[in-house]
Amino acid sequence: MKVSADIQALVDRRKQGYSLEAPFYLSEEIFRLDMDAIFRQHWIQVAVEPDVPEPGDYVTVELGSDSILIVRDDDMQVRAFHNVCRHRGARLCNEDKGTVGNIVCPYHSWTYNLSGDLMFAEHMGEQFDRCKHSLKSVHVENLAGLIFVCLAENPPVDFAVMRAAMEPYLLPHDLPNCKIAAQIDIIEKGNWKLTMENNRECYHCVANHPELTISLYEYGFGYQRSPANAEGMDAFERTCIERARQWEEMNLPSVEIDRLSDVTGFRTQRLPLDRSGESQTLDAKVASKKLLGEFRQADLGGLSFWTQPNSWHHFMSDHIVTFSVIPLSAGETLVRTKWLVHKDAQEGVDYDVSNLTAVWNATNDQDRALVEYSQRGASSSAYEPGPYSPFTEGLVEKFSDWYVRRLASHIDSSASEPRTINIKAV
């Protein structure tokens, strides 16, 4: 995609430590660039392994104009394909999720197995080579049960770095042996970057998230030290040190890893939870009596995992909450939230869905309003980039800096590519 001089200038003059200029949130041209430079070039978190628990189970994910089919094959491997028939391009699976024996095109019944091989295509003649018409695969990676796809021909190779760092943190929670207890999709009337920026700070949490802050320590996400809060911050730091020692003895890593500047950027940290200290619920106690993996202790804090450009996740002793952000337009964003519990947990016996989802249902609604306030504000002629707090918005700056650097890299690489000239016969 060739970018205009105006977009190039916006990228070049981005001021570190400040929010982005308004066109980054409002321009449909920049939205198209975002899809090309970010969502078609990087590893995008789109699903979880329990979305497709059995062979033939599938989910579809829309990334801009591309529909991605994620399916479990007969060997229990998770595969990803372009959801497009190799005959005349019809959409293959037209539901959000389902189960199939084979993948059958609804138009002319071309039939593919779960590995994407074309098995049946009637009336194509003896010279037709089925082997040349398999489904087009999409790069897919499974990180401890979190499913990522990449649409690029050559995906970023540093996914292996994230895997090596994160598996010791995630595997004890045993996400593959969970089930999805609830899923909520909401559409925020705001740009996807505002959704991500809002997630990357808790400056707003005390004033806006009464349900979430029941279980979160006030000082857990950055605070400016003052005489008024020094005692509380010191107590929190002592709690973190003591709990980290206990977790390490249980082979539960907790130390912060921050690689948000990598091409495949990520960050993680396990922090204590407040009050009962067990889970992100309205009473800070477990929402599911059936603990995950081999856990025998409930108060294991909250493990948070953030990825660039589109996801964040919270892992606790009893349940997991995953969030995946998908841009729809310059001014609309899909936020998909899933709550997972142990696969053997029984609804109504071990957990109640309303209790399980109460905190993040409320928080999502509150965040949606905040994102929409910001989107409307960015469209004002009075808007100009404002300064980030160095104490509470450092992760917002890391997201914005990563985003602009990835745009700049894409623009540079596109400018250096040779032009292709198409000559039409007259």
UniProtKB/TrEMBL annotation:
<dbReference type="GO" id="GO:0051537">
    <property type="term" value="F:2 iron, 2 sulfur cluster binding"/>
</dbReference>
<dbReference type="Pfam" id="PF00848">
    <property type="entry name" value="Ring_hydroxyl_A"/>
</dbReference>
<feature type="domain" description="Rieske">
    <location>
        <begin position="43"/>
        <end position="149"/>
    </location>
</feature>
<dbReference type="InterPro" id="IPR015879">
    <property type="entry name" value="Ring_hydroxy_dOase_asu_C_dom"/>
</dbReference>
<comment type="similarity">
    <text>Belongs to the bacterial ring-hydroxylating dioxygenase alpha subunit family.</text>
</comment>
<dbReference type="GO" id="GO:0016491">
    <property type="term" value="F:oxidoreductase activity"/>
</dbReference>
<protein>
    <submittedName>
        <fullName>Rieske (2Fe-2S) domain protein</fullName>
    </submittedName>
</protein>
<keyword id="KW-0560">Oxidoreductase</keyword>
<keyword id="KW-0411">Iron-sulfur</keyword>
<dbReference type="GO" id="GO:0005506">
    <property type="term" value="F:iron ion binding"/>
</dbReference>
<dbReference type="InterPro" id="IPR001663">
    <property type="entry name" value="Rng_hydr_dOase-A"/>
</dbReference>
<keyword id="KW-0408">Iron</keyword>
<dbReference type="InterPro" id="IPR017941">
    <property type="entry name" value="Rieske_2Fe-2S"/>
</dbReference>
<dbReference type="Pfam" id="PF00355">
    <property type="entry name" value="Rieske"/>
</dbReference>
<dbReference type="InterPro" id="IPR036922">
    <property type="entry name" value="Rieske_2Fe-2S_sf"/>
</dbReference>
<keyword id="KW-0479">Metal-binding</keyword>
<keyword id="KW-0001">2Fe-2S</keyword>
